[in-house]
């Protein structure tokens, strides 16, 4: 957590709170953050957010300010002696989100701040308690991430089905779904909900699940894509505005049973349609989100750690590729959702196993050290 839907809701939050707001001065970074400085300072600029999978881009656009008239207008491209537009690409890690507050209410873990020219001053902050999130000034979408599962459906689907020979699909389907090269936006809770709805065991080979879908999308389906050009200055408040854009989903016959790739697209949209009920940085109320969940952290469901050490929630048989030493972790039903950083292959496995094997040795050595003095004391008597 957060996953694709949360990042899109974060972009909508920024656009809703910052639409028409003029920011001023330098972008400030906290002293404790190890992320790069943002070398941007402008007397007047605006902010617009855009999401793509597990990334959010803030575009800072300089404005010409006429303080006497209280008006601002966009600086023309190439105009001399003017600050250039800057894109900052954010990745939220395990706990990142945006907040818009007064300067007096600045959050404790606010690591990047954009100040308005209002009085009293307000601040758009990137808040990240665990500091696993990151930002890249003058950034672009990461090249190793695939098309967005939510708003680039056709490209995402073709990207998966045209690369089924990739070794990534030798892995269990639950682990392949976390590979951002093919499923940009899917995380831990989404993979559980998607596989549960289709009754697919999480530990079956991904290629076996997906290879039968290659001819599923017909030419008629492709022609039914509705395209609508959206300008950079438009702020989208409803998910339906994005659904009918050039990144939107293919029109679907409701009587048709959706396949895995389709659900990877539609299930995240369900979360987005919860709106503030699914992402509200002001109230942090996840009651409606928890009510929406059918599998993840739901009572009666099973859970085991996959080969990467990530907890997989499911129902029924886990599948033939389940880890032989699979352990069901002790979990608590809490509002806080599990960490959801990106797929990292075998590196995480090694770390998880080393910790589990080191712990028993440490306990054994401690017991022996306590017992030795007691035995010697008995001999002296």
What form results from the Cα inertia axes?
Answer: elongated
> What would the average pLDDT be, to the nearest integer?
78
The largest β sheet comes out as: 6 strands, antiparallel
Number of helices: 10
Helix/strand order: HEEEEEEEEEEHHHHHHHHEEH
The count of DSSP E runs of length 2 or more, i.e. the number of strands, is 12
Percent strand equals 15-25%
Stretches where pLDDT is under 50 for at least 5 consecutive residues are 223-255, 333-381
**Structural class label:** alpha+beta
Question: How widely separated are the two ends?
Answer: 61 Å
In which range does the helix fraction lie?
25-40%
Radius of gyration: 24 Å
List keywords for this structure.
381 residues, alpha+beta, six-stranded antiparallel sheet, four-stranded antiparallel sheet, elongated
